[in-house]
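REQUEST FORM: STRUCTURE PREDICTION
Request ID: SP-0412
Submitted by: Lab K.M.
Chain count: 1
Length (residues): 199
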Amino acid sequence: MQLIRQNPDVFAYLASDEAIDHWHPLVQETADALWSTTGDAYSYAEAAFEFVRDTVPHSADSGDPRVSWRASDVLDTRNGICHAKSHALVALLRAQGIPAGLCYQRLADDDGSNPLVHGLIALRLPGGDRWSRLDPRGNKPGVDARFDLAEERLAFPVRPELGEADYPGLHAAPHPAVLTALRESADRQELWRRLPTEL
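STATUS: Completed
RESULT:
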């Protein structure tokens, strides 16, 4: 899909902030370790994606009640929902100079009920002219997200007939409504009640 940058300055998609704290020693250490096994931006991006997708369980799948939201905390606790895992992946990409941002979907149950905003990322490899969306949520039966810059392989293709939607905005920082829900929730059960149902 055609993404619309919310900030026209591409350097905003390399910046560090409170949630995407890519100057944190743990983020740097993880990024350096992944880079040492790859050596080029494409291979590194794929390795970082698979690392977050596969080694940080989605807390709804694992049953972990903790809420993490800073990239460094996600990597430290190996825990997070889609938004938190997206913060971690964006931080790892930016740590190696790869522009990356956050994007969102509105998803629902199979009958259209219980809508929630789902988080994913987009990156642009150096020398590239397009942003590619990736979903580091974590795979499980029925979910098979993959690293593919030519054809989207997301966890959840949207179903417009159920009110689901891809939001075209590409954000340099977490959406305020999402970040507030993450920061102010004592546990994942409270987080489900606080997460926005649309943007």
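NOTES: Strands lie at 4-5, 100-107, 116-123, 132-134, 165-166, 169-170.
Reviewed by: T.R.
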